[in-house]
Amino acid sequence: IVCQSEVWRSFAVDVLGFERSNVVVMRNWTATADLLGIGERRERRAAGAPVRLLFLGWLERDKGVFELLEACRRLAATREFIVEIAGEGNASEEARAFVTSHGLGSIVHFRGWLRGDGLHAALRDADVLVLPSWAEGLPNAMVEAMAARLAVVVSAVGAIPEIIADGFSGMLVEPRNATALTDALAQVTGDPALRERLAGESFRIAAREFALEQAADRLAEVIRATVAAGRAGRLSGHTL
Fold first, then answer.
1. pTM value > 0.85
2. DSSP state, 83?
3. Which of 15, 33, 133, 173 is the most exposed place for a label (fewest CB within 10 A)?
4. What backbone phi and psi angles, to 5 degrees, belong to 56?
5. 31 CB-contact burial (10 Å; exposed 0-12 / middle 13-18 / buried 19+)
6. How many Å apart are CA 238 and CA 224, to the nearest integer?
7. Phi and psi torsions of 63, nearest 5°
8. How far is Cα 161 from Cα 171, in angstroms, rounded to an integer?
9. How far apart are CA 1 and CA 4, in angstroms?
10. Rounded distance, CA 160 to CA 17, Å?
11. pLDDT in tens, 108-164
């Protein structure tokens, strides 16, 4: 069995009963050549320009959208930033009402679902991805942003801490905690050197672990090892 993270490997072994030797962790290939190209060509934002934050995903309460909007409300008076929210969902109407009632319309922009060139343009224009979900596996949106050389501010849930080291390759925050998210966003919006360093480290991880070539090589290796083990009669546990 092939899975994307140590979290899922533990699930396969501890819950499903697979032998650990039969469970392999292999990253997906979300860091496409187009996204890595955005990251390679990224230029430093001009001094004094508002920092651009990007949220990608379903507008649902458990994606942390209201913690994000509350953090924006708290920071609006002390930081220069713009938030692009790309996605829709059951919380769309309530989120728009929050923005209107708190006078955040000049800061928070709702873009709806973005795909293809529109998504690439949003990643190209942004500086920071914010994904304060209550629960995740290994979110593609985070890897896409890393490939495009964005700093990422994400919840410490699921497999995310396997990829992001807090303060080194991104900022990890406690889920459902608007104060922790506010503090993290205050740091990344107020410190250009920190943003650049986090973005550079996240880009290197994406290029090293999530690019197509690396994934194809790893998959080929897994297939060869599985075939060889099967011929030798060494596979044990469940049969798929």
1. yes
2. E
3. 15
4. -120, 120
5. buried
6. 19
7. -90, 0
8. 10
9. 10
10. 24
11. 999 999 999 999 999 999 999 999 999 998 999 999 999 999 999 999 999 999 999
